[in-house]
């Protein structure tokens, strides 16, 4: 907008048009899609702001922070979510508003290195530090280099935090700098990555408002954030996305055995009833229930799903369940919903892979599963085999891959862990409970392999060699590049 022109009342314009336009990018700390649709800390805040204003929220996804800033400069969005620091000086270009989250830049390293406690340790080990462009981290490294001229770092365009973590995990990068929040959200998936030390203080994360608009929307958003900070809504959102990250691990075998004895008996007949009604192996339903809630009838997750089978409100309404905390209704809903998901998997996909795909879809969503199958096929692998597809699901958390897919970012490691855990739980239950002795068993499994057969089959079978579990093959070792889908 030319200097001297009268700037429009942005708040009034938003409310008159009935739309709040936001520009952002896929990142687990900002915006992503899960099985319920768009989510992420900033997205949830923006949705509440739009509700507060009485307007529709429209989100446009950019490929990089540079694109977000350009869209804001050109006046095509009201707010930009970049994950950048609120302390950055934008001059007269943007107004910066802290969104209620803080983070810091941290050094991570491959566990094969000696633990570095300081920059001096990095220098002593002659470690090159890697950093993604368009982040908060580069200014901190530049400051460190001014004090330690021998510090060597490399800047990478087109990589995000997940890409950095993957490369450190694989040993391709010995060390890198990432956002502490991104590390917390993803650390469980990268066992070879360790945190070293911080290279910055805690910094507030910003929403950006272009100064080509007047300050009315900015002021309203600031007042809104102050209000939800006072009433506890903001704290609830922080807890939802960051307060239960340790729940991603699975309970050990001894604890599972205790829960089989102490918790399962009260739900055993219900699992059997709805397994029979839906044509599913009740032991599979029980394994799903254990992964979801540890067989706790009153379980509530950080994302608001409830009950023994952890049904979302939308799923419960779709299935016709009105009380998610009622264990019988919850098991019924979980069984009926999983059966629907299972039927969405193409019929030509053979068991047990079809069941593993259904479990992954139950966890991450059918669209993301299809994206992973397309990536698998593009790489010349078999998109109908779980052994292959599970190697590509984790790529959905990396920008260089999800930017080529239809459904964008997903926490692709989670369904891999989810399926693996359920297979382990099922294996134990299959050894404990023999369906051959149950006259109306709808599905038969080989207890040693934990395999499911089609519902019409009563014949057990051995696992084929190609169906056995193998260690995860890192896609970079296969020489793959992101395909265009």
The total strand number stands at 14
**Largest sheet strand order:** 4-1-5-12-6
Shape estimate: globular
Q: What are the segments in which pLDDT stays under 50 over at least 5 consecutive residues?
A: 246-251, 439-485
The radius of gyration computed from the alpha-carbon positions, rounded to a whole number of angstroms, is: 25 Å
Strand content: 15-25%
Q: What is the fold named in CATH at topology level of the largest domain?
A: Lysozyme
Q: Main β-sheet, in a few words?
A: 5 strands, mixed
How large is the count of helical segments?
19
What is the overall pLDDT average? 84
How far is it from the N-terminal to the C-terminal residue, by CA?
Answer: 38 Å
CATH architecture of the largest domain: Orthogonal Bundle
Helix content: 40-55%
Decide which structural class fits the backbone: alpha/beta
Count of the separate structural domains: 3
CATH class type of the largest domain: Mainly Alpha
Write the layout of secondary structure elements.
Layout: H1 10-17, E1 19-25, E2 32-34, E3 37-39, H2 41-53, E4 56-62, H3 65-73, E5 79-85, E6 94-103, E7 105-110, H4 119-124, E8 128-132, H5 137-147, E9 152-156, H6 161-170, E10 175-179, H7 180-186, E11 193-198, E12 203-210, H8 216-230, H9 233-242, H10 253-262, H11 268-278, H12 282-293, H13 313-319, H14 327-344, H15 353-364, H16 366-378, H17 386-392, H18 399-402, H19 413-432, E13 445-446, E14 451-452
Parallel strand pairs: 1-4, 1-5, 8-9, 8-10
Antiparallel strand pairs: 2-3, 5-12, 6-12, 7-10, 7-11, 13-14
């Amino acid at each position: 907008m030319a200097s001297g022109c009268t700037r429009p009342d942005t708040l009034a314009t938003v409310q008159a048009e009935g739309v709040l336009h936001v520009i952002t990018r896929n990142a687990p700390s900002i915006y992503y899609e899960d099985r319920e649709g768009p989510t992420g800390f900033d997205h949830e805040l923006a949705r509440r702001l739009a509700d507060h204003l009485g307007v529709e929220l429209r989100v446009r996804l950019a490929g990089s922070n540079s694109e977000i800033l350009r869209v804001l400069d050109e006046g095509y969005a009201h707010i930009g979510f970049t994950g950048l620091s609120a302390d950055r000086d934008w001059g007269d270009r943007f107004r910066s508003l802290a969104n209620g989250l803080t983070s810091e830049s941290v050094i991570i390293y491959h566990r094969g290195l000696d633990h570095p406690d300081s920059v001096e340790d990095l220098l002593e080990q002659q470690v090159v530090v890697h950093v993604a462009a368009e982040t908060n981290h580069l200014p901190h490294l530049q400051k460190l280099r001014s004090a330690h001229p021998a510090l060597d770092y490399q800047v990478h365009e087109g990589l995000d935090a997940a890409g950095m973590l993957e490369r450190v995990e694989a040993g391709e990068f010995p060390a890198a700098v990432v956002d502490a929040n991104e590390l917390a959200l993803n650390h469980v998936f990268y066992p070879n990555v360790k945190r070293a030390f911080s290279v910055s203080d805690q910094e507030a994360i910003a929403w950006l408002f272009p100064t080509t608009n007047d300050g009315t929307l900015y002021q309203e958003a600031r007042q809104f954030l102050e209000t939800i900070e006072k009433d506890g809504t903001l704290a609830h959102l922080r807890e939802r996305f960051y307060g239960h990250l340790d729940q991603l691990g699975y309970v050990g075998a001894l604890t599972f055995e205790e829960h089989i004895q102490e918790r399962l008996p009260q739900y055993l007949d219900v699992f059997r009833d709805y397994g029979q009604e839906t044509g599913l192996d009740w032991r599979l339903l029980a394994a799903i229930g254990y992964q979801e809630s540890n067989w706790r009838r009153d379980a509530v997750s950080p994302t608001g799903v409830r009950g023994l089978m952890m049904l979302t409100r939308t799923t419960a309404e779709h299935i016709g369940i009105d009380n998610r905390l009622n264990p019988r209704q919850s098991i019924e809903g979980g069984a009926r919903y999983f059966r629907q998901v299972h039927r969405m998997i193409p019929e030509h996909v053979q068991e047990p892979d079809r069941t593993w795909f259904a479990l992954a879809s139950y966890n991450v969503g059918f669209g993301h599963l299809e994206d992973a199958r397309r990536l698998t096929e593009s790489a010349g692998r078999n998109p109908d085999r779980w052994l292959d597809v599970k190697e590509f699901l984790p790529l959905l958390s990396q920008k260089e891959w999800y930017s080529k897919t239809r459904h964008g970012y997903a926490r692709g490691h989670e369904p891999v862990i989810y399926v693996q855990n359920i297979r382990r739980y099922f294996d134990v239950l299959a050894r404990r409970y023999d369906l051959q002795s149950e006259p109306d068993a709808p599905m038969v499994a080989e207890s040693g392999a934990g395999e499911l057969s089609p519902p019409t089959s009563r014949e057990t079978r051995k696992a084929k060699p190609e169906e056995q579990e193998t260690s995860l093959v890192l896609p970079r070792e296969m020489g793959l590049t992101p395909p265009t889908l």
